[in-house]
Amino acid sequence: MATGLLAYYGSKTTAVTTGYSLVQYDKNENLKAAVEKEANLGLKGTDYYLAQKNNPSDSTNYVSMQRIKRSTGWYRDTNGVWNYEEQHKGRFWWDIIFAFILISLWLLLYMIWHYLERNRKDELGRVSLEKTVKELELKTIKSHINPHFIFNSLNSIRALVEENPKRARTAITELSNILRSSLQVEKLETVPLHKELDIVKDYLALEQMRFEERLKVELDIDEDTLEQSLPPMMLQTLVENAIKHGISKRINGGVIRIISRFSEGNFELIVQNSGSLDSKYKEGFGFKSTRDRLRFLFNDHAYFKVEQVEGPSVQSKIVMPAEDAKNLAVIK
């Protein structure tokens, strides 16, 4: 559009300044053509133009004059002087409308192109984000099945083989369930809370072999939330951090409390552990991946925070839209 305006006003300024324009050039060329046609028709030097005064409908000269006029716009008046008459009178507004239509079509095509290009970039950004989140999820899952946890569990199970064979068999089943579930959830975007709780219960049961009386577990689970969807291994992340940074650092151990509930249209998942939040606390990979996954699934409609609460306890809290979460595709 800018180019069109520049061309229009540039040509207009040139015409006003120099007195010469493309239109004037075209008229001059048409005058030459009119003179040439007049000669070709054998009318040069005659008074054929006077035919317009005397019954022109039957005049061959009048017809010839009209042919010259229609093809070039030029004609001789009754005095024999060349005059020019615009052959497209009345087309000004049609030209304006036509130009408007062309500009509108150009703008429409540009907007469509711009829309498609933006969608393409958005799609590329979404795919890139999905890839990043999937990588984060995979790293998160792998981080939970760390060698230290497996070695500790196997050592505990080995100690139980002779002392308590029945408990040892149960522990092997619990460890097997954790490993199997971790491999399965890699393919899922969300899982129902009750499945996540099953994994966490097996995990806590194995950790209780290691901590014994130092680890106490309390569950405050609203039954209405059991079908609530959440990203896989997210609760596991919170529980693992609570044990690693809370219970394991206390001589007398402490309590792990898991709470799930609906509140004001949101789903709240809370993990509390005995202890105090270290003033030098830095967010690790597990918590960072939790924030990234929530942002990927819910944009700005979900959040995660860690804070000190009465007890003294450290609280990790996830809040996400209850209805939106239920609408996510869940493979049960």
Describe the structure.
This protein is of the alpha+beta class. The protein folds into 3 domains: 22-84, no CATH class; 88-144; 147-321, 2-Layer Sandwich (Heat Shock Protein 90). It has 10 helices and 9 strands. It has a 5-stranded mixed sheet with strand order 4-6-7-9-8. The chain has a two-stranded antiparallel sheet with strand order 1-2. Strands 3-5 form a two-stranded antiparallel sheet. Helix 5 runs antiparallel to helix 6, helix 5 (147-163) packs across helix 7 (193-211) and helix 7 (193-211) runs parallel beside helix 8 (234-245). Pfam families: His_kinase (PF06580). GO terms for molecular function: phosphorelay sensor kinase activity. Keywords: Membrane, Transmembrane, Transmembrane helix. This is Signal transduction histidine kinase internal region domain-containing protein.
